Amino acid sequence: MTRYLITSALPYINGIKHLGNLAGSLLPADVHARFRRQTGAETLFICATDEHGTPAELAADAAGADVATYCARQHAVQADICRRFNLSFDHFGRSSSAQNRALTQHFFARLEANGFIEARTLQQVFSTADDRFLPDRYVVGTCPHCGSNRARGDQCEACTRPLDPSELIAPRSAISGSTALELRPTRHLFLRQSALEGELRAWLASRADWPPLVTSIARKWLDEGIRDRCITRDLSWGVPVPRPGFEDKVFYVWFDAPIAYIAATREWADQDPARRAWRRWWLCTDDVRYVQFLGKDNVPFHAVSFPCTLLGSRENWKTVDVIKGVNWLTHEGGKFSTSAGRGVFLDQALDLLPADRWRWWLTAHAPETADTDFAFARFAADVDHDLADTLGNFVQRVLSFVVSRYGGVVPDGGRSGTDERALAEQISRLTEQLRREHEALALRRTADAVRAIWKAANAYLVARAPWTLIKSEPDQAALVVRIAINLLGICARAAWPIIPEAAEKVLAAIGEHEDVPPFPSASDLGRIPPGRRISHPGPLFAKLGPDWAQAQRVRFAGGRPAPEELAVIPRS
């Protein structure tokens, strides 16, 4: 039986992530991992914080902490937010771990032994005031393209144009603010990706089921000419370079960060070595299907650079089978920005609403074929319609009727007829459609398929109208109510990968308590027997409404509001 290895892009350590980060990789990966577990497949879902590189050092300095302490603190914050969003990682590791240090140095040694590492001399910015070389992001200034004063030596934060430090107007050190900068020669190590181009092209050609977005990005990088990549930096925080003459350098974050997928698996295994074996996921992998979930900006590093590392090692490492890349989520017509504080950040989102509403909307509107704009008005209208009016109303009507007319006990009696046979056929078609959409990694269509099951359940209840039948045909009313209770289970199991908290609340109310609810099927229409006592969980989703949406749009228009300014609605 196929085993499934699932990884999400590593969230960077500097600050709390925003809804765009959740929509781009973390949530889609979780939805797929939950689905695979529902089908009974052995599944390993791995992620970690990405902790090396210039931004970590800058953020630590701004926070007044040494970088190791800062990263440890921020990892705990991010892990807690992921838990509160019900992201079901088997392990959430750290790229600064001892395991990643060892594996990164191992891959370097293999690449060097195989002739894919080369030392070269570069001209790099040196700050005399700081007495150090400055990596590109340590050089700040004015963008020559848009005039923003938030440009860095690798990219403008405003217009996103790639830059070189020499292009900046009035460049200065991000550490001291000094403008006393000069170019000096320095030695760095390069991964000779150009020497692996043929193998990389053959490997890419062997991949199937990649979204057009991902394939086009990977091909573009190759067609424009694959370049050798500098894999060292003049920093103190990172994985040390084990080569004489490079003791004052560390590996480039984009060299060690993808290796952290393997290292985090090793962290997971090291926690219980008697029962866990990390090599069976990465080296003994004939039965493993590996799926990565990424935002489009991360695709080149995972479709080109990381495969070069694995191929160049000349070891039998598992390479990705499918990369699910998505476009960007924008915020009220503009770009999400961690540095500018623009958009809804994940701690704020959880202060506003429980996780399920965010999870539902971001899945149902995933930016798969184009960028998707998040707007509070649209968000509120959509979740009110889908969660409160469609699913929530069905749960409320069925359970309230059972409690009021049957004393909270699943009724006996009645025989299935034409309507029930038609319902079973419909549920069979809809659950198979849901399975196909999950397997295709089609996020929006998966949510559509879940919604279709909810609508079918509502339609059956309205058409059979047990509140009317109970007056003239009590046995038939009992049958309809019993089937409706089982439809609740089907609706909840279908929704569990997307909205696990609400789904588990519904399943608990009808006496179903599996840790991982099995994937739904038409046979579940007879799953719950007569005589079982059920409970009523109360309203699942309080409605938001346009006034709430307008208030949030105003509050978030100026960047990150203070926590006390957040309007909180009931937690139901």
Q: What's a concise summary of this model?
A:
This protein has 18 helices and 17 strands.
Describe the 3D structure:
There is one protein chain. The chain is α/β, with parallel strands linked by helices and 572 residues long. 46% of the residues lie in helices and 14% in strands. It has 18 helices and 17 strands. The protein has helices at 19-38, 54-63, 67-84, 98-113, 197-205, 212-223, 253-270, 279-282, 299-312, 346-352, 355-364, 376-406, 418-439, 443-464, 466-472, 474-495, 500-509, 545-555, and strands at residues 3-8, 43-49, 91-94, 117-127, 132-133, 139-142, 151-152, 169-173, 181-191, 229-230, 232-233, 250-251, 288-295, 322-326, 329-331, 334-335, 372-374. The protein has a 5-stranded parallel beta sheet with strand order 3-2-1-13-14, with helices on both faces. Strand 15 and strand 16 form a beta hairpin. The longest helix is centred in the C-terminal third of the chain and has 31 residues, at 376-406. Mean pLDDT is 93; it is low at 561-572.
- Shape type: elongated
Q: Roughly what is the average pLDDT, rounded to an integer?
A: 93
Task: Give start-end ranges of low-pLDDT stretches.
Answer: 561-572
Question: Radius of gyration over alpha carbons?
Answer: 27 Å
What strand order characterises the main sheet? 3-2-1-13-14
Strand percent estimate: 5-15%
Keywords:
572 residues, alpha/beta, four-stranded antiparallel β-sheet, 18 helices, 17 strands, 46% helix, disordered C terminus
